[in-house]
Amino acid sequence: MYDFNYLERKAKDLIANGKAADAIKIYLFMADGDQSLDAGYLGERLGECYEKIGDLHAAKYWYGRAVEENPDVRLTSVAARQRLQKVSIEAFLGDATM
To answer: Structure pTM?
Structure first.
């Protein structure tokens, strides 16, 4: 069993050293099996990491999960979802019609 606080410090150190992709691995490990994502905290942290590495689709998803779990507290995630609202899959669809 790992200490949550230790893992959080380690992830923050990785982010501070420009290794957000490695921090993602820690946050995913912490979130595994946690349906609430620690009241949305881990979703928000994952969203921030994905945004740092430029994966805006994944960032939007994780920010959304954070808001789902705790909309009244995860105001950073609410703002991020608003900021990323134009991130879509349209560019990948071509001329496909439904």
So the answer is: 0.89
